[in-house]
Amino acid sequence: MNVTSAVASRISCRAFLDTPVPKQTLVAILETARRTPSGGNLQPWLVHALAGPRLAEFLELIRGKLSMLPVGEGTEYNIYPPELHEPYRARRFKCGEDLYATIDVPRDDRPARLRQFARNYEFFGAPVGLFFCIDRRMGQDQWADLGMFMQTVMLLAREHGLHTCAQEAWAVWHKTIGEFLRLPPETMLFSGMALGYMDESAPINWLRTERAALDEFATLHGF
User: Fold this and answer.
1) What secondary structure letter does DSSP report for 169?
2) Is the pLDDT of residue 107 over 90?
3) Which domain CATH number covers 58?
4) At the N or C end, where does the chain have fewer CB atoms within 10 A?
5) Beta-carbon contacts of residue 74 (< 8 Å; ≥ 6 apart)
6) Beta carbons within 10 angstroms of residue 176's beta carbon
7) 221 in a structural domain
8) Could you report the per-residue pLDDT of 29-77, keeping only the tens digit for each?
9) How deeply is 206 buried, as exposed, middle or buried, from its count of CB atoms within 10 A (0-12, 13-18, 19+)?
10) What are 183-222's pLDDT values in tens digits?
11) In a domain, 216, yes or no
12) Domain count, the chain
C-alpha cells in the first residue's frame, strides 16, 4: 500500500473484530514509526500497548469505575478550545450528527448517544489498546511531534491491513491509567488509540467525514 492509499483509506474506526493482532505486527509498526520527525530529534513519545489478559484486566477496571464516575476523572488539558468558533464548531457538530446517523441515533436520544460514547472505554472492541504519553515538562512543539508520531502509527497500521481510532476521550481517565501503567509523576497521558481489524459490516464504519476544499485552507504563493 502506498502512502496516498493509506491516507485515503484511514478512518476513525469505531467497531473492530476480535481477531488478535500478532505481536510481531505491532512491533513492526512501532519500529518503523521511530523514524517520525521531531524537533532536535528529541523523540518525545512514549507508548504503552495493552492486549490479551492485560487489556481485559484494564477494561474491567474501567467498567467498575464508570458506574461511580460516568464522566471520568477530568482531563489535564482542554481537548477542544473552551470557546470553539466557526468554522470549526460547525464541522465538529456535523461530524457528530453524521456519526450518530449511521447508527440511527437521533439527536434528542441522549441515553443512546452516551451509550455509544461509552464504547470509547472499550476501545470499540479492538484487541489492542495503545496509550501515548509525553514528559509533562515538554512544550507545545513536542506535543506536535507526538501527534506526528501517532499519525505515522495510524498510516503504518493501514499498510498492515489494520485500522485505528485515536481517542483523546481516554484523557478523562488519566489518574486510573497512570496508576494501572505505573507511570512516573513526570509522565503525562495524552491520548489512547484503538488498533485492530475493522468490522466492515458495522454501519458506523461507513462514515466518511467531509473535508474542506483546498482553497479553504491553502494559499499557494509564487506558483
Assistant:
1) G
2) no
3) 3.40.109.10
4) C
5) 172
6) 19
7) no
8) 999 999 999 999 999 999 999 999 999 999 999 999 998 898 899 999 9
9) exposed
10) 999 999 999 999 999 999 999 999 999 999 999 999 999 9
11) no
12) 1
What are the grid coordinates assigned to 19, written together?
481477531
**Which amino acid does the sequence have at 138?**
M
Q: Is 90 exceeded by the pLDDT of residue 111?
A: no
On whether residue 222 sits in a domain, the answer given is no
76: helix, strand or coil: coil
Residue 219 forms part of a structural domain: no
- Can you tell me the mean pLDDT for 127-143? 96
